[in-house]
Amino acid sequence: MKRSVLLLAVVLAIGAAAAFAWFGGAAKLGLVQPGQQQAGATRPSSGPARPVPVEIGTVRVEPVADEVEALGTLIADETVAIAPEVAGRLTKLGFREGDRVKKGQVLVQLDTAVLAQELKQAEVDLKLARDTSERASSLVQRGAGTRVASEQAEAQLAAAEVRVALAQTRLEKATIAAPFDGVVGLRNVSVGTYLTAGQTVVTLSNLDPIKVDFRVPELLLRDLAVGQKIRVRVDAFPDRGFDGAVYAIDPVVDVNGRAVRLRARIANPGLNLKPGLFARVSIVTEVRESALVVPESAVVPDGQAKAVYTIEADKARLVRVRLGKRLPGRVEVAEGLKPGQRIVTTGQMRLRDGALVEPVQPQAKAGASVTQ
User: Fold this and answer.
1) Please, how many CA atoms are within 13 Å of residue 175, restricted to the half-sphere of its CB?
2) How far is Cα 130 from Cα 117, in angstroms, rounded to an integer?
3) How far apart are CA 299 and CA 128, in angstroms?
4) What backbone phi and psi angles, to 5 degrees, belong to 236?
């Protein structure tokens, strides 16, 4: 019994020494203030809340466009294969490959020797037929000839006139002129080649303006209209955009792809764009001239929704918003804000609704500028 009492006394003594040592060390380190070492002691009240430093921006008004992305192919505004309608030997080419040519410029000249002789023969036959018709008509008037003979002479005269016109046309067809301004391609024949009717000599294309054919899903049909603006980008010029406008919409929807086919024209004065190029097309379906836009960094999550901190009397107010179109570094706000409102763009992590804020100057970032 005495041994148990002695053991309990030793344990209590060790516990008391440990407690004294801990409180003394904690007081020296400032972990426990004097007067707070007893159970039930209260902490002193903290001072006034300090303002949270934040960067401030404003809600801006600017035009925002809704766009539809599509893929298409560039085609020439007009293109035609230059080919003779009559057979003959090629005697002259009035162009160099790749040249720009004007409407009416002679491109192909065939040998006209045979055709010219055929025209002369037809003109001689016409003169004879005209004389015969006049004599037959004169004999009928004097009662020395028959009306049948006169009618036959008139028919022969008409046939001779047709042959002259045909020979004249064939002679004219030996010369081929450009039907419109354009650029000639690579020729397929050489001077001296005997050409058959319909044999292609070269292709003529009008490339200014140039057209683009593209398709969009049928679900967007109600958003399409003639005159809508487009922007085209091609891999050959990755840093450039080319503007144009829709001028035709196919009235028939493609049943295979369930898509609507559109065609637009693009100004191409430098002839940089070529038919056959793959094109990425952005078509503007709607433009909101007075859209509200904020920096993307101003938007924070609020549960399943999105929100923005506005500044009212140096206090942050959490306002839920409905976002619209996303832009590079910015986002459209469809509902929740007003033009010119001050908003927090950086520093939201330390904010809560109603917290005091202190505007600070934005810090410059290497290689980038801060958008407010």
Assistant:
1) 12
2) 20
3) 96
4) -65, -30
Amino acid letter for position 85: E
Helix axes 147-173, 113-142, angle to 10 degrees: 160
Cβ atoms of 112 and 219 within 8 Å: the answer is: no
CATH class of the region 53-62+289-359 = mainly beta
Angle, CA of 12, 14 and 19, to the nearest 5°: 95
Topology of the domain covering 80-195: OB fold (Dihydrolipoamide Acetyltransferase, E2P) (2.40.50)
pLDDT in tens, 322-334: 999 898 899 999 9
Superfamily of domain 68-77+207-287: Efflux pump adaptor protein, beta barrel domain (2.40.30.170)
Start-to-end CA distance of the chain, whole Å, equals 82
**pLDDT given for residue 99 in this prediction:** 92
pTM (two decimals): 0.64
pLDDT digits (tens, 9 = 90+) for 134-149: 777 877 777 766 777 7
Distance (Å, whole) CA 287 – CA 308: 24
Query: What's the CA gap between 308 and 337, in Å, rounded?
Result: 9
Domain boundaries, the chain: 1-34, 53-62+289-359, 68-77+207-287, 80-195
Helix, strand, coil share of the chain (percent; to 5): 25, 40, 30
Report the alpha-carbon distance of residue 15 to residue 21 in Å, rounded.
10
| Alpha-carbon span 247 to 210, nearest angstrom | 12
Kindly report the number of other CB atoms within 10 A of residue 138's CB atom.
Answer: 12
Closest CA relative to residue 51, chosen from 309, 273, 350? 350
